[in-house]
Amino acid sequence: MNVVDGMPRYFPTIICDKLCGYILASSIGVALFARERTGVGQEVHVAVMDAMVGFNMIEHLWGGVIDRPDLGLGYSRMLTPHRRPYKTSDGYISLLAVTDDQWSRLFAAIERPELAKDPRFLHLEDRVRNIDELYGIVVEPIKTRTTAEWQEQLNIADIPNGPVNDFQSIFTNGDLAEGHFFRRLDHPAAGRTVSMAPLASFSRTAASLHRKPPRLGEHTEEILNELTTQTGA
Question: Is the pLDDT of residue 196 over 60?
Answer without folding.
Answer: yes
